[in-house]
Amino acid sequence: MPKHSARLAATAGVAASLLLAAACGAGSATPASIDLGPGPAKSGTVKKDALSGLNMTFVSYGGAYQDGQQKAAIDPFAQESGANIVQDGPTDYAKIKAQVDSSNVTWDVIDTDSIWAQAQCGKLLQPLDYKVIDKSKVPEGLTTECSVPAMQYGMVLAYNKTKFGANPPKGWKDFFDTTKFPGKRAISGNPGDSAPGPFEAALIADGVAPDQLYPLDVDRATKKLQSVRSNLVFWKTGAESQQLLESGEVDLAMIWSGRAYAAVKNGAPFQVSFDQWMPVMDSLTVPKNAKNPKASMALINYYLGARQQAKLTELTSYSPINTDAEPNLDPLGQSFLTSSPKVADQELKIDSGWWAEHQPEMIEKWSAWLGG
């Protein structure tokens, strides 16, 4: 599945029309009070008609992902709470800033990149109210002061099982070993998709211990990347990465798990190694100066429910973030869930706080290497 920066390819015309619709449906006056019922909060629930007549806007990246969000959580929340919810998108950070700076915020809940959300906590985004949002079923370490995960997937190593099935690559060191595993390798060529991925993989391959990755040694990482540059094929979008597997143009790929799943489902002879896979998340956030923050918190709380998360996974292939979620998937789909204990145990720990602080400069450095 495509990630945030790749998903921003929606046309300006579509975005403008959606924004106009949102402006017409959002921005109602703050109600005198919102009674969500007695506590404590329980994810996946909302008091019947608690938000009756309230206009809200939910913003995400469009496509099958936002359709899945709408069917799994947003529409059911509207039906139960009584709120009128308009869909808008794609997520646009410049628009968020413009709304917050002008104190004319029309977006209520926004699906954003998780690292961006950390960087904007207390700036463009407001702290979440964990008295209204039940995070007890979200794995420890995934929530922050201003965000909760919307779903999870991963940056994984995919390999051609026809070519390497007898002796498959098992981690990022093997990905960079062109002698033992010859062939073309696919990696992201999009400057905005540097976190996490190429730098961490290159350093692991160069012998850096997983718990010693940060701060990232960019010079060392790019030197390692340069050593295999002639073997690299760069993809700009999730769709491109998937096509590289399906066409057989590459033998290995650093790819988002959802796109690898889609390629395999379409018949590509690839297998995924989850050894040292890197977690990637979108986050649900509430902009500063939102008109109805308590209603926004209620929607997020509902979205985090086990039933809603299971349905979202069934519709999109993204992994649920509620530990009680039990999506009904075929064996192939189950094998790609990054939330399963077997896969989760192989995760490479990413320092998202470090990335939140350094992402702009890292994007510049990744862009410079790509253009070099």
Describe the structure.
The chain is an alpha/beta fold. It has helices at residues 4-7, 12-25, 63-81, 93-102, 114-119, 161-164, 172-175, 198-205, 218-226, 238-247, 257-265, 293-303, 306-316, 331-335, 341-344, 352-371, and strands at 55-59, 84-88, 109-113, 148-160, 185-188, 232-235, 252-256, 270-285. The chain starts with a helix and ends with a helix. This is ABC transporter substrate-binding protein. Residues 1-28 form the signal peptide. InterPro entries: SBP. Keywords: Signal.
Short description:
The chain is of the alpha/beta class and 372 residues long.
The largest sheet is: 8 strands, mixed
**What best-fitting shape do the alpha-carbon axes yield?**
globular
Termini distance?
28 Å
The radius of gyration computed from the alpha-carbon positions, rounded to a whole number of angstroms, is 21 Å
The CATH level-2 architecture of the largest domain is identified as 3-Layer(aba) Sandwich
The average pLDDT value, as a whole number, equals: 91
Report the uncertain regions: 4-28
What's the CATH H-level homologous superfamily of the largest domain?
Periplasmic binding protein-like II
Structural class: alpha/beta
Widest beta sheet: strand line-up: 2-1-3-8-4-7-5-6
Total domain count = 2
Number of helices, counting only DSSP H or I runs of 4 residues or more: 16
* β-strand amount: 15-25%
* CATH hierarchy, class of the largest domain: Alpha Beta
Structure summary, number of beta strands: 8
**Helix-strand sequence:** HHEHEHEHEHHEHHEHEHEHHHHH
Helix content: 25-40%
CATH topology annotation of the largest domain: D-Maltodextrin-Binding Protein, domain 2
